[in-house]
TrEMBL record:
Keywords: Signal
Annotated Leucine-binding protein domain residues: 21-372
The name this protein goes by in its record: Branched-chain amino acid ABC transporter substrate-binding protein
N-terminal signal peptide: 1-17
Length: 412
């Protein structure tokens, strides 16, 4: 018994002698969403740096440019595996994520000695942890239906709201957001009229004035959209230009150019749902955000998402636990790591989340924020040096944000 305890103590404080555990992030580092890819990479770099600064597993992060295209992502997957990657990280496209899940399932069955895990930080198509769920895939973002339900908590309370316009990107995720917006509106606010409902090409529209003109002409009092990066900021800017004065209920209105694009006309009008916001009013959250800004002081680099850091912490925790159990840092079994990861519980910056074993959907608190001027009550920090930040107006506990799953997990 003493020997076993000594071994546990040794492995809990050891600096691994083995080669670093390789992670490969596959993202669009060029193309329409290049800014989003680079922003993700900064978060992952800092998360890995923190892990590597302490005893335990050492991680090596490599990047592969998918150009935002599925075929490029699949090619990058093959290159990453050939290069020794053990974990694949991706998230900025649900379509790409779905293809990666299929490819990784087939690869792991075909080559059990070179298995990989897939950690997803942003691809929120609900089916990825429902009918397409996989033992090898772990999602650390709330999926689209969970995010929509959180937004509906605010819409439900806006009794003056009588009409909305639904607009999104024409691919699997945008279509899912539109469907869920219609479904949930019918449940929680059947009195609200949908006066417009359309999709536009993903990442290809340069001028949103025609769309914004239709939104204004419809008489909508609010817009519901899952748009992200330039598709969101250009839409909001066009709405401002045509004089639309309604609210925007968004999944991603709190970053990557959107606040600066809309300016003062967005005060009190742009609503965003997130797993975390810089103005979450806790000491741990503030310390975490200040540390990120110390690492990346340029305002343009101010894009931080807690879930990406919880994800890397959960992975490091799972690897360390696997090594402690096996006593072999040179032959880390990915099935064992997956078994640890599917019951992970992690805390960072005052935020706690846990992986649901049944479907590998991370469960965490969600918050809804409203855009306000920096310095106003509840807005200590702005976004990207814009002078605008998001005041937290609603917090949805993890248990309340949780939704049922249809996953029937097949385990190796």
């Amino acid at each position: 018994m003493v020997g076993a305890l000594s071994a546990i103590a040794f492995f809990s404080h050891m600096a691994y002698a083995a080669a670093p555990f390789k992670l490969a992030v596959i993202e669009g580092f060029s193309g329409a969403n290049a800014a989003g890819g680079e922003a993700v990479f900064r978060n992952l770099v800092w998360a890995v740096e923190r892990v590597n600064a302490r005893d335990g597993v050492k991680l090596a992060l490599e990047r592969y440019d998918s150009k935002g295209q599925t075929e490029e992502a699949l090619s990058a997957l093959r290159s990453a595996i050939d290069g020794g990657a053990r974990v694949i990280l991706q998230g900025n496209s649900s379509g790409v994520a779905a293809s990666l899940i299929d490819a990784i399932n087939k690869h792991n069955e075909r080559e059990p000695t070179r298995r990989v895990l897939f950690l997803n930080y942003s691809a929120v198509l609900p089916e990825l942890t429902n009918e397409k769920c996989s033992f090898w895939h772990f999602r650390f973002d709330a999926h689209a239906d969970m995010r929509m339900a959180a937004l509906m908590e605010s819409i439900k309370e806006d009794r003056a709201l009588k009409s909305v316009y639904i607009i999104g990107q024409d691919y699997s995720f945008g279509q899912a957001v539109a469907r869920e917006a219609r479904r949930q509106l019918n449940l929680v606010r059947p009195d609200v009229q949908i006066v417009g409902d359309e999709l536009h090409p993903l990442g290809k529209v340069k001028d949103f004035i025609p769309y914004a003109t239709k939104i204004k002409a419809s008489g909508a009092q609010a817009v519901i959209t899952g748009n992200f990066t330039t598709d969101l900021s250009l839409l909001i800017k066009a709405a401002k230009d045509v004089g639309f004065e309604g609210k925007f209920y968004t999944f991603y209105g709190n970053a990557l150019g959107a606040p600066a694009a809309i300016g003062d006309s967005g005060l009190g009008k742009v609503v965003a749902v997130a797993d975390w916001l810089p103005n979450v009013p806790t000491a741990g959250s503030e310390a975490f955000y200040k540390a990120f800004r110390a690492r990346y002081p340029q305002p343009a680099d101010d894009y931080v998402h807690m879930r990406m850091h919880l994800m890397v912490e959960a992975l490091a925790q799972a690897i360390d636990a696997t090594v402690k159990q096996s006593g072999n840092e040179n032959a880390i079994d990915l099935v064992a790591v997956g078994a640890q990861l599917e019951r992970a519980k992690v805390t960072l910056g005052g935020q706690t989340g846990s992986m649901r074993t049944s479907d590998h959907q991370f469960q965490q608190t969600l918050v809804v924020g409203v855009m306000e001027r920096q310095g106003s009550p509840g807005v200590k920090f702005d976004v990207e040096g814009s002078g605008y930040g998001f005041k937290v107006v609603k917090t949805i506990a993890a248990a309340a944000a949780e939704l049922p799953t249809t996953c029937k997990m097949q385990r190796p």
